[in-house]
Amino acid sequence: MENTTTTISSDFIRTIISEDAKSNKNNGKVATRFPPEPNGFLHIGHAKSICLNFGIAKEFGGTCNLRFDDTNPSKENVEYVESIKKDVKWLGFDWEDRMFYASDYFERIYQYAVELIKRGKAYVCDLTQEQIREYRGTLTEPGKDSPYRNRTIQENIDLFERMKKGEFPDGSHVLRAKIDMASPNLVMRDPVIYRIKHEYHHRTKNEWSIYPMYDFAHCLSDSIEGITHSICTLEFEINRPLYDWTLDTLEVKCHPKQIEFARLNLSYTVLSKRKLIELVDANHVKGWDDPRMPTIAGLRRRGFTPESIRNFCQRIGVAKRDSLVDLQLLEYCIREDLNRIAKRVMAVIKPVRVVIVDYPENQVEDMEAINNPEDPSMGTRKVPFSKILYLEKDDFQENPPKKWFRLAPNQEVRLRYAYYITCREVIKDEETGEIIELRCTHDPETRGGGSKDGRKVKGTLHWVSAQHALKSEVRLYENLFLKSESNELDNDLNPKSIEIIKDCYVEQSLANSKIGDLYQFERQGYFCVDHDSKEDNLVFNRTVTLKDTWAKIEKSQK
Ligand code: ATP
Ligand code: MG
Predict the structure, then answer these.
(1) Nearest bound ligand to CA 76?
(2) How far apart are CA 34 and CA 53, in angstroms?
């Protein structure tokens, strides 16, 4: 990946792995995996895990597998699998030929379960889900043994086989690991490792009527793939003893080391798949790739680049304690990248018609404009200027406050790359009083935006030529949620998270834009061409606003 600005910083996981490598553990090999469950689109939290797992593999000369953790047939589907592949690739990572499915291991995992039974370490239990919960005890009280705990190995093997054959209804039996009903860790109180589910699976179809539980399938999938370091989020810390118990009891050849890190929480949004699904299903947003969503697909459509997301993941680092990351950091990262790469253009979002009364009727002048002051190699372009322009309505005030440097009656301002103009007359709709046109004069001596007599103006405004500009639609976004954390869908959605503005005008040079093209609209922010665009109506998403634009433009004009 061609990111030269990012340096690799170390963290506690990299320290562990580097020590393992030094002591030649696993013959110095490093193998990680990214194991999404295909039950939703990936979000920015997953990006953290992807950057960590694929990043570590790359830094240590190892490998990282993409594994679909598809052990729960009811919520999984192929659309999600495809979206996950697309998003991981787009982020810049490559699993090469190592794409796997936990469902590929169903037969082997089943055999491991049989092996556990044979070792006297698993039994078929007929208690209901509710009874199992009751028998489990609490943090302060030990659990009670299930009355089925002491079934013979033969009986267990027979029942488990019949579960597999589909002889029993859902919920009538489960297979449980036989560990310790008095363990201080509730996870170790004879956890369920297989359940009956007569359900269609997106890959194995109707082949199975029993499915392994996450805790059982995950460690075995890791082991089967020869993973050396199984990196997961903090909530699995209490499951680690079960991870280790399973692999120790089965005496498998490969026993990966599970390491937990803190999941990403981001302010003003939600990163739980359950909530994201609800947002989509309840039409609070327009699909998984709605630009307000914290999904990779949403961020991509919003105009985020893979580099900016990788840099964000790099900056937040990896720690062992949960924290809330400020959404502004993510915005900072995309600004930083777009500042470098985005072409500056002029676009008028809320237009007012401006007539330059002393400018010749049919004249058009090409004004030279700089594409990116940060990167001279991006060159310049010609922007047509003519008698009738559009300016931003908000850049004019008839009765301005003090220190108003923009347009006002008899006040001179600079039009970027063009002329100094002075407003002479305000035309209003007779009935509504709304301003419909501003009549201005220009100083021909100021062509290009500077005056020969050293006369200074404080305001610089963007504009487009009315006859050349392209009509377009702009979508502005705000935070999806109102609160920085603990947002609930019922109360905390921001009703103003999207503003759609039609009849905007962008400069002519954007005519051949492609979907995904990124621009800075001077003074307004960074924008991305949306796939809703039509040939005669470009649609732009505002990726992020600008900071300190005003100061910057002033500086660059001096
Ligand atoms: P959710 O809790 O939102 O449903 P999940 O953890 O069930 O997400 P998976 O598809 O199982 O989603 O996640 C795949 C990998 O991504 C896991 O290893 C998980 O730990 C990691 N992951 C998920 N969410 C985050 C997050 N917010 N920050 C960092 N890693 C995450
Ligand atoms: Mg999960």
Answers:
(1) 1
(2) 6
- The answer to whether the CB of 294 is under 6 A from ligand 1 is no
Residues 6+ apart with CB under 8 A from 256: 219, 222, 223, 227, 228, 229, 230, 247
Catalytic residues: 37, 263, 273
Distance between CA atoms of residues 398 and 423, nearest Å: 10
Structural domains for the chain = 12-265 (3.40.50.620), 343-551 (2.40.240.10)
Q: How many residues does the chain have?
A: 558
Does residue 38 line the site of ligand 1, with CB under 6 A? no
Is residue 175 within 8 Å of 193, Cβ to Cβ?
A: yes
Measured distance CA(408)–CA(301) in Å, rounded: 38
Q: In this structure, what token pair is assigned to residue 433?
A: 């009083």
Per-residue pLDDT of the chain (558 residues; tens, 9 = 90+): 444 444 556 899 999 999 999 999 999 999 999 999 999 999 999 999 999 999 999 999 999 999 999 999 988 789 999 999 999 999 999 999 999 999 999 999 999 999 999 999 999 999 999 999 999 999 999 999 999 999 999 999 999 999 999 999 999 999 999 999 999 999 999 999 999 999 999 999 999 999 999 999 999 999 999 999 999 999 999 999 999 999 999 999 999 999 999 999 999 999 999 999 999 999 999 999 999 999 999 999 999 999 999 999 999 999 999 989 999 999 999 999 999 999 999 999 999 999 999 999 999 999 999 999 999 999 999 999 999 999 999 999 999 999 999 999 999 999 999 999 999 999 999 999 999 999 999 999 999 988 889 899 999 999 999 999 999 999 999 999 999 999 999 999 999 999 999 999 999 999 999 999 999 999 999 999 999 999 999 999 999 999 844 434 445 544
Residue 247: in which H helix or E strand, if any? helix 240-249
Instruction: Read off the tokens for 146.
Output: 């299930």
Q: By the 8 A CB rule, do 173 and 124 touch?
A: yes
Measured in Å, residue 235 CA sits from the centre of ligand 2 at 10
- Can you tell me the distance from the alpha carbon of 498 to that of 495, in angstroms, rounded to the nearest whole number? 8
Q: Is 46 in the pocket of ligand 1 (CB under 6 A)?
A: yes
Q: Which ligand is closest to the CA of 236, given by its number? A: 1
Q: Which numbered atom of ligand 1 lies nearest the CA of 40?
A: 10
Tell me the H-state helices in 250-368: 273-281, 296-302, 306-316, 327-341
- Please choose, from the candidates 238, 296, 288, the residue with its C-alpha nearest in 3D space to the C-alpha of residue 264: 296
CA of 46 to the centre of ligand 1 (A): 6
124: β partners: 175
Q: Is 33 in the pocket of ligand 1 (CB under 6 A)?
A: no
pTM: 0.94
